[in-house]
Amino acid sequence: MDSFVPDPFAASAIEPETEKINTVIEQVLAKTVPIHHQKPSEIRAARERGEGVWGPVVTVPEATTRTIPGPAGAIPVRVIVPASPRGVYLHIHGGGWTLGAAHHMDAANLRVARSCGLAVVSVDYRLAPEHPYPAGPDDCEAAALWLVAQARREFGCDRLLIGGESAGAHLAVVTLLRLRDRHGLAAAGPPAAEPEGFRAANLAYGAYDLGLTPSVRRWGDRNLILSTPIIEWFTDQFVGPELRSHPDVSPLYADLSGMPPALLSVGTLDPLLDDSLFLHARWRAAGNPAVLAVWPGGVHGFNAFPIPMAERANQRIESFLRDSLGASA
Predict the structure, then answer these.
(1) Which of 270, 276, 280, 324 is catalytic?
(2) Which DSSP string do the residues of 101-164 spell out, in sequence order?
(3) Which residues does residue 162 pair with via DSSP β-bridges, in sequence order?
(4) CA distance 104 to 190
(5) How confident is the model at residue 260, as a pLDDT?
(6) How many CB atoms lie under 10 A from the CB of residue 138?
(7) How far apart, in Å, are the Cα atoms of 91 and each of 108, 109, 122, 215?
(8) Is 37 annotated in the active site?
(9) Is the preceding omega at residue 271 within 30 degrees of 0, hence cis?
């Protein structure tokens, strides 16, 4: 475990700034209509109008939108390219497979591009409930295959990394499994297999068992970004109960051999805590390198808030991505 404190689960490990922002989050959300009592299309429209709970969406001029071929037509991708990129980061945004968009992550992805020297390609995959499983995973798989084939021509390098937050972390793992099982793309690394796939996975507070882990089931109604009813609502939008133990839906059930090194980040006040704890154990048990970073008092999405712990978590992620490129990159 890489938590920077001896016991990340101790109440004394939670910093005052973290406690303060958690109180603010809970108070703000208590005054709003919970997500699971709204319509996804209306939530999306309000966010694009700048009426989301956390304010307007911030975009950056360095980011451009283009399209790539997909299984159901063109897939929009949001691209940020620094000077002389050392690698390419396939980013998959969160939002419970139902909300969110690639341009919502412009500021965070620009920081990654600059700090790590990575071209960032963020996928606007199709969203549920209009496009339930397997639409979103299919689009992410297509984007990954496009990068495998085109990264060197498009960006001048083919060192590929993958990652995402929340549902995006889930989709990143599903994508890696599909690349291995459907396309024979092994994790890259010395000595690299042929053909070569992605060399590292940045997995931030993902959902890996859509049948719901104990920490989700036991959390209850307390809304710190997520609650048990909200997670159940998101899952219902995405996939029916009959498929939730399938490895393509819940990667915790998959054969995880041959996966690349991973960094799994999660806060102790995230209902999805068990998902990261369990996946880390299974990732390691399958013979893959993995680091588990548990952050005291972190809520779901904690690293997007202006607190010192968020800055340290983001620096840890960036260090992992840089290191994953290798000394010769």
Answers:
(1) 270
(2) -GGGGHHHHHHHHHHHTEEEEEE----TTTS-TTHHHHHHHHHHHHHHHHHHHHHS---EEEEE
(3) 90, 201
(4) 35
(5) 97
(6) 19
(7) 11, 8, 4, 26
(8) no
(9) no
SS3 267: strand
Tokens of 160: 């590929």
Helix boundaries (H) for the chain = 16-30, 40-48, 106-116, 135-155, 167-183, 214-219, 228-238, 273-285, 308-325
The confidence score (pLDDT) of residue 195 equals: 54
Note the pLDDT of residue 328: 54
Would you list the domain boundaries of the chain? 11-324
Q: Which residues of 301-323 are buried (b: 16+ CB within 10 A; e: fewer)?
A: bbbbbebebbeebbebbbebbbe
Is 270 annotated in the active site? yes
Rounded CA separation 61/187 (Å): 33
Helix and strand totals (H; E) in the chain = 9, 8
Q: How many residues does the chain have?
A: 329
Given the residues 122, 166, 215, 276, the one annotated as active site: 166
pLDDT tens digit string along 264-297? 999 999 999 999 999 999 999 999 999 999 999 9
Determine the residue type at 45: A
Concerning whether 115 is annotated as a catalytic residue, the answer is no
- The token pair at 122 is 């963020």
What is the CATH code for 11-324?
A: 3.40.50.1820
Token representation of residue 49: 């109008």
From the list 167, 141, 165, 166, the residue with the least C-alpha distance to 238 is 167
User: Which is nearest to 313 in space by CA: 266, 260, 262?
Assistant: 266
- Measured CA to CA, the distance from residue 243 to residue 80 in angstroms comes to 35
Question: Strand, helix or coil at 92?
Answer: strand
- pLDDT tens by residue, 203-213: 999 999 999 99
Taking alpha carbons only, the member of 285, 264, 32, 70 closest to residue 169 is 264
- For the chain of 329 residues, list the mean pLDDT of each consecutive stretch of 10: 74 96 97 96 96 94 98 98 97 98 98 98 98 98 98 96 98 98 81 68 98 98 98 98 98 98 98 98 98 98 98 98 82
